[in-house]
Task: inverse folding
């Protein structure tokens, strides 16, 4: 456990004084995400340690450089977990990197996104000042919800020094089912199930196979498994399957084509795009491995009522994230000017303008 905030503050103030840029990095496993990295390295891995954890309160507070694997191991020892299942993308993943990336795993559709579990943050802004937002309780509603704003900001607004997150108890039991059905039927079926009181915690469809994970009380899971049918997957194999979905080590992701992440309404019909698709989150998340033109992919996502992100690989010249309209871009610029007026942090990581 080490507090290196003084060194981080000095580095930020020096960069601000010299108009230099900094590239915030934890474990580096998500360097592929977003536009090209720019600036002098600001390494957060020395700022580590769990600041506070009271299992009965279901809240943990830790510093940004704390290894994500260590935190999850401690939660597991207490019979708890991060319900949003953050992907690691490497053994060196840190808590700060997970929050800054804002990515959630297979359980997101049932449990909520990472940002929904953020209670409070301590950040270092572009002036080198330490700011605190939120707290360690759910009913902290004073002021704007800046804490959750940090989730998914990719370090463009500040260094996340500490973060407080809600935890949840581990489910009493889990069962994974495998069913055969075409894409359109899978989407319709998942949306029908979503309207029923079923303990579905994760879904994944690819190439005619639909995986469904049930989590919760033993009686509820057993009853739901009987209703849904399909083949039961052996527990160890099921754990590997969902881990591979979370960490993108499933064979689907071992692809040389650009990987796109399309967020659409769960009931959107199959997208008529070239390439291979994998569907998660009851139909709301469509992974697409395709050499199609970015414009074609983004137009298809927009037509379905969603947006598309170039998640990994491909030509980033067309932009990684879906283009923002003028009002949203104005809000983004104002936020950047407020927290990082000199443009010190992660320049151009999300959009070229900031």
Result:
């Amino acid at each position: 456990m080490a507090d290196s905030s003084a060194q981080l503050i000095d580095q930020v103030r020096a960069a601000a004084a010299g108009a230099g840029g900094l590239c915030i990095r934890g474990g580096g496993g998500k360097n592929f995400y977003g536009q090209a990295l720019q600036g002098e390295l600001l390494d957060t891995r020395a700022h580590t340690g769990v600041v506070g954890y009271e299992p009965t309160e279901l809240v943990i507070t830790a510093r940004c450089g704390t290894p994500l694997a260590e935190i999850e191991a401690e939660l597991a020892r207490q019979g708890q977990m991060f319900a949003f299942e953050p992907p690691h993308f490497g053994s060196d993943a840190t808590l700060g990197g997970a929050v800054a990336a804002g990515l959630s795993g297979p359980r997101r559709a049932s449990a909520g996104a990472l940002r929904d579990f953020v209670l409070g943050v301590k950040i270092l802004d572009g002036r080198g000042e330490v700011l605190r937002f939120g707290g360690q309780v759910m009913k902290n509603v004073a002021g704007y919800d800046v804490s959750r704003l940090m989730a998914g900001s990719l370090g463009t607004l500040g260094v996340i020094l500490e973060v407080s997150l809600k935890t949840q108890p581990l489910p009493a039991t889990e069962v994974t089912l495998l069913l055969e059905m075409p894409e359109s039927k899978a989407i319709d079926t998942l949306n029908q199930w979503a309207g029923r009181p079923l303990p579905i915690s994760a879904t994944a469809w690819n190439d005619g196979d639909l995986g469904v994970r049930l989590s919760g009380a033993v009686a509820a899971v057993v009853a739901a498994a009987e209703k849904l049918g399909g083949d039961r997957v052996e527990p160890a194999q099921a754990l590997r399957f969902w881990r591979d979905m979370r960490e993108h080590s499933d064979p689907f992701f071992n692809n040389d084509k650009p990987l796109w992440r399309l967020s659409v309404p769960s009931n959107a019909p199959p997208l008529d795009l070239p390439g291979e698709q994998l569907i998660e989150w009851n139909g709301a998340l469509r992974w697409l491995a395709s050499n199609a033109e970015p414009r074609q992919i983004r137009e298809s996502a927009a037509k379905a009522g969603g947006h598309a992100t170039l998640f990994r690989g491909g030509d980033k010249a067309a932009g990684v994230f879906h283009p923002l309209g003028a009002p949203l871009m104005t809000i983004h610029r104002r936020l950047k000017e407020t927290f990082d007026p000199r443009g010190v942090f992660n320049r151009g990581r999300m959009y070229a303008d900031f």
